Amino acid sequence: MKIICVVKFVPDVDNFTYDHEKHIIIRENSRMMVNPDDACAIGFALKMKQRSPDTSIEVVTMAPESVLPLVEDILRVGVDTATIISDRLYAGSDTYATSRVLSRYLSGATYDTILTGSHAIDGDTSHVPSQIACLLDLNHMSYISRIDESSFSSSLARFEVESEQAVSSYEIQMPAILGLTRASGYRLPYVRYKNLNMDVSDRVTVIHNDVLCFDESEVGLTGSRTKVVGTHVKTYKNRSHHVVTTDQEGIDTVYRFLKDKQFI
Amino acid sequence: MDSKVVLEQLKGMLTVDQINTDQDDLYDAAADRYKKYAKARKVLNVPSPIAIVYPKDTQEVSMLLSYCNEHGINVIPRGGKTATEGGLENWKELTIVIDALHLDSICKIDTYNSQATVQAGVPLQVLEDELRKVGYTTGHSPQSKPVAKYGGLVATRSIGQFSTLYGGIEDMVVGLECVFPDGQISRIKNVSRRAGGPDIRHIAIGNEGALCYITEVTVKIFRYFPENNKFLGYLVKDVETGIKVLREVIVNGFRPSVARTYSPEDAAQHFYHFYENSCVLLFMAEGPKGIVSATVNAIEEAVETYKDGIIKQVDSQLIEDWFNHLNWSQQDIDDEMLGMIDNDSHAGYTTEISADWETIPKIYDAVMERVRNEFERAEDLTMLGGHSSHSYLNGTNMYFVYNYKILCEPEDELIIYHHPIQRIIVEETLKAGGSMCHHHGIGKYRSEWTREEHGSAYYMLEKLKQAFDPNGIMNYGTIFPQEEGMKYIQ
User: Fold this and answer.
1) Is the complex ipTM higher than 0.90?
2) Per the CB < 8 Å rule, is A192 touching B407?
3) Residue B203 lies in a domain
4) Which of A52, A148, B250, B407 is a good FRET partner for B202, with 20 to 30 A between their CA atoms?
5) B141 and B97 housed in the same domain
6) Weakly modelled stretches of chain A, pLDDT under 70
């Protein structure tokens, strides 16, 4: 079975820079991480590989080449191959342009299923998986909180989707795009100490626009139909600082505070 | 020898309830708090012992050690299980843990002669509580006080928070009884002082279960004057100023029971409500009124001497409140274990070293510099600091404390985070002529530097091992470096 995991690298929420003039996230200087939902997709794929060692996993991402060390770490935990789609022309692409780039690559790839996340913590539009599914004419489902591992195959997947109202069970014909959420609990393992310096360079492919052949007008800022009208910088208020002691008065103060804030 | 045969033969020596082969208990006995995170996550990489046994008296300890010595079975002596340096970790397939559970009698409290005799399994807190009833104290108060037991305290050269006044455990032990691998029971008598050759108490004190099993100790006890306690606290500009004030007080001949200087990072953990991003210097004076009064005066004079480095004095009540919540209970330890199961975090690690007054600030600065610049995961550090908490006429200790985001598998946490930091601390300390182990013992994970720690005197240490434990059955890998154990270290 061949699984492709489409993943996004996102800025660490503690440390990212936003270009307020161009309205784009500056990714080059940020500490990046695999988007948490996407990490669950890889985690699930690795679990399947553990069950069926002949399973092959490819990670595909559209990102600056600076993510290479992070991609290499994904290979060091058991993913077979990785493809980084990267070109200066693609910088600033909106979700639609991104979906077109990814779809063009995927249309030439072989796979039994495509796994990805549902939400990205830096954008949260959830457009890309749906748009790829549309462009590739594949079935698609997001917000998957559990996949039945025993019935997961190249022809069929059974899974649960969790919403505020209910947990629904689905069965889908493969190939399909399945979007997991963090609620699934599938975990991307850390690289083991003994593998930290493992050479995986021969398993990474970097693809530029000379392969995908987009016109400049189709991708990047110019090819993006989404226009950001404006942004605002979040302001932070100075919080008051109140020290209490471990006596009845202190306990009452903390209790009232938690109650006011509706934690209790 | 086959473990099943050993278990059968143990049944011939002990009653069934003295032999514990419960798998969970054996897993727990495979490692101590050094590998707390891996242990909580059930990924320990060391073998479990085959049994935990609970002798009821010294004769049974002697019988067990003779048996193990004859059959080459590794023995780990165990008390309150508060070891932090791998001293209770098991590196051998065929190991039994000899637990002091039933050696739990307070043999004698002798207030007239200011000494008390207890068996190895008596918790420090139990003796302290008994002494308080008669107006006395042990004077010993490590953070593990509610849990630690006397056998372990003596075997690891424990020290307490009031050491500047009362000393470390080695200053308190008057005499003791211990058992060697060949079954020999030795009693060192309780006298006020003697010049009868080398002080053989120190063969047992600090042996970490690598030479003998301590079964009974007699310690000094002290009159207790809690009503006279005085607390003083200051914010100071830097660690060096704080250490200079500590030195001034000590070299002038005064002995506050608590005398500490915290770096701002460490202070943030304990004194977040008043430390104002500064170092914290604090004292506690105790004893008879006149001594307390003189000690407080001496502290104030020392602070005046270094007033350029003093930011301000803080409310004494803040120091007293901190003091009243110092110790770790079994509940705290259990809570940390539970927390590590659910979260990728723990309460951090420490490495405690000592050196003379002049050298300590240099080691501190060198360590900070190297960790921040050389440690590959420095960006994951959530805390790096230290405090001086035990002072002597010629120097003090430095208790490096650090914590980090654990961004690795539990099996690799120590080797990726703690070991590299500890290595820097040990290297800088030994380079500067200090000691790499102020009060936690060497355990197993600093044994790679035991030779360097002792230099040419390692000869003496090695001879002790050869003489008392020629078959190497006592706590394999502890204190004495073992090539085979390096797979667990590196």
Assistant:
1) no
2) no
3) yes
4) B250
5) no
6) 13-30, 124, 231-239
